[in-house]
């Protein structure tokens, strides 16, 4: 798809609207339109107080014009959104929203206008459907106690283990399969511990209070039982854990879970694990490149219960190749029967670098009505079973233009997920691909410090990683100076 812009700064917003309505067409911004026959295109123009949006699917053309004396983001994007909805006949459930954090936006509106006024603005300005506005409001309410309990020095620790037994067909994360990257795991682990040591020194000197630890990936349980024991021991030995009541490790893939590893995690103070089936269909598991069966998921869950874990999360994905509404319903009912304390519902997001498109696995992803029915079924059933939505985020090119939502039984929310998705607390990340997000407790300012993305870079340039950690001290000193 070609996109032609003129006289306004809203390139990012207009590009995302093109992807929203034409998710399988690459968007190319051009100085002048020259589309091939049958190729979709769009124009978003501003001239002397007049906005013009023209869109085409390669055959029909829809034009919208609006006079506005001042240049405004929503005037341009609203016009373009209206042209796309008329052209395609689609009315996305999340309206014109393309950002990651819709609940954060709703929070801003509610703080400005109160709950009723905030929801009204959320719906009318952003064209969000009533069911999705309700889901966002329920999520916002569920986050309230966690957000209000934060103090100015609270922070969460994220630890990245970027290795997996195999690479799933939909994956574009920096994780690498151990068959090809196994030789990196030892050096990576040793350097990760060094980064943790420096992080501990910095946060202690700043007087920060650790309230959550989250070990993600990748699949952290690709580490050996001995390495997991050492990692947990280092965390508990380096950091003051007296105020930290949650310690999560993504066990994730059942083909990496053993009794010895779970016992090492339990002994190391881990309070919550994720065992992520994505689906309980053996056929769909094979389609996405998993080497385990649905029965192995059930066995791993039972093993986690046997070793004493009372807080377990299960991830499921809507839109996987070869799945169906009936198959998805069976999967969700199977997970509900296990009694998982958390269930995280994902919509399949097509990412560059994932092999799923090249392998022709986007059939269900393109069936928006069916994927919407799958997600609506999950919302209804999880609500019926007493779960509440407590964090929510969105990505580009999601199945059905839907969402990812974390659901929890009462008292079982994972606060880390709220901190990182709502961006209401500082999260300091260690490991490859980690992004430290420092929240100024005295303003809305958010600063980021990036680690190198790939394990090879993390190992070869580790000195730079440690130097970047000094930025945590500099930024917190700036936050506190502004207070005074």
Task: Write up this protein.
With 484 residues, the protein is an alpha/beta fold. It folds into 3 domains: 2-88, 2-Layer Sandwich (Double Stranded RNA Binding Domain); 102-145, no CATH class; 150-325 and 339-346 and 411-471, Alpha-Beta Horseshoe (pyruvate-formate lyase- activating enzyme), CATH 3.80.30. The protein contains 14 helices and 18 strands. The strands form 4 sheets. Strands 14-15-13-12-11-10-9-6-16 form a 9-stranded mixed sheet, sandwiched between helices. The chain has a 5-stranded mixed sheet with strand order 2-1-3-4-5, covered by helices on one side. The chain has a two-stranded parallel ribbon with strand order 7-8. β4 and β5 form a beta hairpin. α1 (11-21) runs parallel beside α2, α3 (102-126) packs antiparallel against α4 (130-148) and α5 (178-206) packs parallel to α14. The chain starts with a strand and ends with a helix. The model has no long low-confidence stretch (mean pLDDT 93).
């Amino acid at each position: 798809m070609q996109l032609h812009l003129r006289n306004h700064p809203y390139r990012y917003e207009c590009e995302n609207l093109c992807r929203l309505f034409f998710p399988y067409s690459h968007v190319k911004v051009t100085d002048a339109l020259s589309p091939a026959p049958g190729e979709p295109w769009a124009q978003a123009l501003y001239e002397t107080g007049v906005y013009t949006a023209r869109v085409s699917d390669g055959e029909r053309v829809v034009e919208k014009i609006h006079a506005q004396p001042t240049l405004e983001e929503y005037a341009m994007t609203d016009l373009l959104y209206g042209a796309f909805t008329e052209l395609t006949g689609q009315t996305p459930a999340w309206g014109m929203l393309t950002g990651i954090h819709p609940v954060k936006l709703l929070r801003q509106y509610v703080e400005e206008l109160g709950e009723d006024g905030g929801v009204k603005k959320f719906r009318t300005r952003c064209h969000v459907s009533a069911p999705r506005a309700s889901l966002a409001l329920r999520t916002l309410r569920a986050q309230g106690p966690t957000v209000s309990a934060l103090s100015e020095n609270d922070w969460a620790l994220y630890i990245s283990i970027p290795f997996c037994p195999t690479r799933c067909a939909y994956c574009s994360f920096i994780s690498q399969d151990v068959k090809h990257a196994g030789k990196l795991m030892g050096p990576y682990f040793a350097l990760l511990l060094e980064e943790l040591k420096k992080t501990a020194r910095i946060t202690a000197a700043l007087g920060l209070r650790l309230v959550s630890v989250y070990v993600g990936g990748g699949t952290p349980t690709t580490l050996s039982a001995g390495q997991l024991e050492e990692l947990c021991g280092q965390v508990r030995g380096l950091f003051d854990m007296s105020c930290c009541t949650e310690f999560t490790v993504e066990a994730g893939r059942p083909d990496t879970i053993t009794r010895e590893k779970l016992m090492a995690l339990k002994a190391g103070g881990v309070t919550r694990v994720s065992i992520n089936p994505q689906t309980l269909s053996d056929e769909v598991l094979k389609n996405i490149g998993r080497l385990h069966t649905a029965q192995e998921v059930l066995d791993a869950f039972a093993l986690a219960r046997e070793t004493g874990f009372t807080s377990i999360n299960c991830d499921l994905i809507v839109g996987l190749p070869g799945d169906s509404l009936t198959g998805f319903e069976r999967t969700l009912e199977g997970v509900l029967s296990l009694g998982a304390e958390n269930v995280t519902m994902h919509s399949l997001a097509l990412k560059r670098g994932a092999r799923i498109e090249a392998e022709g696995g986007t059939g269900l992803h393109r069936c928006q009505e069916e994927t919407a029915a799958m997600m609506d079924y999950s919302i209804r059933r999880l609500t019926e079973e007493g779960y509440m939505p407590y964090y929510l985020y969105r990505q580009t090119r999601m199945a059905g233009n839907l969402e990812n939502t974390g659901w929890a039984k009462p008292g079982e929310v994972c606060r880390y997920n709220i901190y990182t998705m709502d961006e209401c607390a500082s999260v300091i990340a260690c490991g490859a691909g980690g992004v430290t997000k420092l929240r100024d407790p005295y303003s809305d300012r958010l600063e980021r410090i990036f680690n190198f993305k790939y394990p090879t870079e993390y190992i070869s340039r580790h000195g730079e990683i440690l130097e970047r950690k000094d930025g945590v001290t500099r930024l917190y000193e700036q936050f506190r100076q502004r207070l005074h």
